[in-house]
Write a structure and sequence with these properties.
Blueprint (H helix, E strand, L loop, with lengths): L5 E5 L4 H17 L2 E9 L13 H26 L4 E9 L1 H10 L5 E5 L5 H17 L4 E4 L14 E4 L6 H10 L6 E7 L6 H6 L2 H20 L9 E6 L2 H11 L4 E6 L4 H9 L1 H7 L4 E5 L1
Parallel strand pairs: 1-2, 1-4, 2-3, 4-5, 6-7, 6-9, 7-8, 9-10
Antiparallel strand pairs: 5-10
Helix pairs in contact: 3-4, 8-10
């Protein structure tokens, strides 16, 4: 069973980070975990003057600023949730994505819970990119909450959607999805990636072949579901056709799922391109939280 004992929640005092903090504490209550709140003081260049050139007065001012931010963050969290499940409050300087990724790789974090920001203007360029970088670099699972989510769902989750691509890591991803919800409330989804308006493809891929491909996909999904069957209960298998991220978002919306669980591939150029076109789009636009696991 997947358990999260040490949860890291980056906070910037925004509404998305408030919602992420709410979900982090909900996860902590369910898993018997503790929450570390991290605030990274904005530094667009992440530049540091060598210590022997540093101005003593300037350094003292930064220490005072960090202490003030820490006190403000403690009061903010206490007003929202109290301090019962709060383990630590950290205030650091530098690039936000780098600091968050460092903590996710340090061995003292099982899960990062963070909000995403707007899709245009400064938020899209400066804040949205932080989440995208963390998703690619984090050494542990990342749970994101987008502004499109109308509410923060209760934990444990009651309806979970798990897109799979039949890679070797799909079993792991599905296993995590099943431990976060009852097996009967998990839908395994595979999207056959073509579009109905692709005229050239429709001329080449005849309906008979399309039918055979769908039957084979259903068999593979059912075999995957059978491996996670307990007491006669198993996940529901589903096949869709079209642009993968659109189908994932449409089905999640139609079935009103509480959580999407999906994998993030490695860091080479091709995988980063795939990330941008699928996982990234789902994280940005999903109307529910999205849990991503490094594949």
């Amino acid at each position: 069973m997947t358990t999260f004992r040490r949860i890291l929640c980056p906070v910037d005092f925004s509404e998305p980070s408030r919602r992420a903090l709410e979900l982090a504490f909900s996860m902590a209550r369910h898993h018997g975990a503790r929450v570390t709140a991290l605030h990274v003081m904005f530094d667009p260049f992440d530049f540091r003057v060598p210590a022997y050139f540093a101005e003593p007065v300037g350094e003292k001012a930064r220490v005072v600023e960090r202490d003030c931010r820490k006190a403000e963050l403690r009061d903010w969290i206490h007003a929202l949730h109290g301090n019962e499940l709060l383990d630590r409050i950290l205030v650091e300087e530098g690039g936000a994505a780098a600091r968050i990724a460092d903590h996710s790789d340090s061995g003292d974090t099982d899960l990062v819970v963070m909000g995403t920001h707007g899709l245009s203007g400064f938020d899209r360029l400066a804040l949205g990119s932080v989440t995208e970088k963390v998703l690619r670099k984090a050494g542990c699972p990342v749970l994101t909450v987008s502004p499109a989510a109308p509410r923060v769902p209760p934990v444990p989750f009651t309806r979970v959607l798990c897109p799979v691509d039949f890679s070797s890591s799909s079993k792991t991803t599905l296993g995590v999805a099943c431990t976060l919800a009852d097996e009967t409330n998990v839908t395994i989804l595979h999207v056959v990636g073509w579009s109905d308006d692709d005229v050239l493809f429709e001329q080449v891929v005849v309906p008979e072949y399309r039918h055979i491909l769908e039957e084979d996909t259903v068999l593979r999904l059912n075999a995957l579901a059978a491996e996670h069957t307990h007491d006669g209960k198993k996940p529901l298998a589903r096949v869709a056709h079209g642009k993968p991220y659109r189908e994932i978002l449409n089905i999640a919306e139609a079935e009103r799922v509480d959580l999407i669980v999906m994998g993030v591939r490695g860091r080479n150029p091709l995988n980063l391109a795939l990330f941008g076109s699928t996982t990234n789009q789902v994280v940005r636009h999903a109307s529910c939280p999205v849990l991503t696991l490094k594949q």
